[in-house]
Design brief:
Number of domains: 2
Structural class: alpha/beta
Radius of gyration: 19 Å
Largest sheet: 7 strands, mixed
Shape: globular
CATH class of the largest domain: Alpha Beta
Strand order of the largest sheet: 3-2-1-4-7-6-8
Order of helices and strands: EHEHEHEEHEHEHHEHEHHH
Strand content: 15-25%
Number of helices: 11
Number of strands: 9
CATH topology of the largest domain: Spore Coat Polysaccharide Biosynthesis Protein SpsA, Chain A
């Protein structure tokens, strides 16, 4: 029996249906002999934890509730705790609201990172494809900000992708070379920043390439619901209009991927 090549790190917090769909789609579209899944529960205490406990094909870490941890910090600490158990050449961070959608999704990511030995990571900044008119308007806004911000003293650093506002591989889909993370002693929670942000920066500073896969390509292989945990747990703090829009997006993805059928297919848990 071949050894797994990729370890998937999957933090979980109070998303029972989403978690179930995520893992069942992984099982449906992946040769599980090639992966090792480590789910890390951040003190959910709900049906999502019960579900994770019922799965024999994953490894589960149950973290207690730390009162001094914010939600984002709990997420990055969960990734770090699981990272200590990784023995595979590659490690992939994912969210429970990231759904794979075809059988060659893993080969697609591995081909990208194996294309050059100096590539330390591949993945996504934002996994979304907006209508063309919104993309055009966004580019116009960006050009205007590039001209206006320096005039009012904000500088280019306030622009997305500039200065301290640099782009990085986000943890909803980021595949790394395990040996490089270990070589440089890096963590997802580096400097208590957003998960993977400083890790990305440090790998670049060490001379490695961090490759962004265009959303137009990656979305053929997986979809990210974006902020699903907050949308489904409004007590975490999300504006009403954003929640309405976000829930509509979740409904559309559920229909597109026939998620109701996935929720009924218990054979994918075995």
């Amino acid at each position: 029996m071949s050894k797994p090549e990729v370890t998937i790190l999957l933090p979980n917090y109070k998303t029972p249906e989403i978690t179930k769909i995520c893992l069942r789609l992984l099982r449906k579209y992946t040769d599980t002999s090639r992966i090792h899944v480590i789910a890390i529960d951040n003190a959910s205490g709900d049906a999502s934890l019960d579900y994770l406990r019922s799965l024999s094909w994953i490894e589960l870490i149950e973290r207690p509730n730390y009162e001094d941890e914010s939600g984002p910090l709990s997420h990055s600490h969960a990734l770090d705790e699981a990272m200590e158990r990784v023995t595979t050449p590659y490690v992939l961070s994912m969210h429970t609201d990231t759904f794979v959608r075809r059988h060659d999704w893993l080969d697609f990511l591995l081909a990208r990172i194996k294309a050059d030995d100096n590539i330390a990571g591949v993945g996504s900044w934002k996994l979304e494809v907006k209508p063309w008119i919104k993309r055009v308007l966004k580019r116009i806004e960006y050009k205007w900000q590039s001209f206006y911000f320096p005039l009012v003293g904000k500088g280019y650093g306030k622009l997305e992708g500039k200065g301290d506002n640099f782009l990085y591989l986000r943890s909803h889909c980021a595949l790394y070379r395990t040996d490089l993370i270990r070589k440089y002693g890096l963590k997802f929670s580096q400097e208590n920043d957003t998960a993977g942000r400083i890790l990305h920066k440090k790998l670049v500073e060490h001379g490695h390439v961090m490759q962004f896969i265009p959303s137009e390509e990656l979305i053929d292989y997986m979809v990210h619901l974006n902020h699903a945990t907050m949308l489904l747990n409004p007590e975490l703090g999300i504006r009403k209009h954003k929640r309405v829009k976000g829930l509509k997006r979740i409904k559309q993805v559920f229909e597109e991927l026939e998620c109701e059928k996935v929720l009924q297919d218990t054979s994918l848990d075995a």
